[in-house]
Amino acid sequence: MEDVKINREFSERQPQDKEWLAQNTWCDFCKKADLGIEKPTEFELNGKIYLSGFCSKCGNEIKSEIIE
Ligand SMILES: [Zn+2]
Question: Which DSSP string corresponds to 16-31?
Fold first, then answer.
């Protein structure tokens, strides 16, 4: 099955949502949660919503699923 990716507007979320989502992250490189995310972008992939961006600590690209 081919991946279905739909871009979403992270910037249109409520300020408190953005703040919460940008703080509640997981970094595979640091192996730590809640380090923060830089330049967040939101998209939907195969029916799941993700937030991707760059770890505030190490700068590597990270991706977290958003559970709503
Ligand atoms: Zn990191």
Answer: HHHHHHHHS-EETTTT
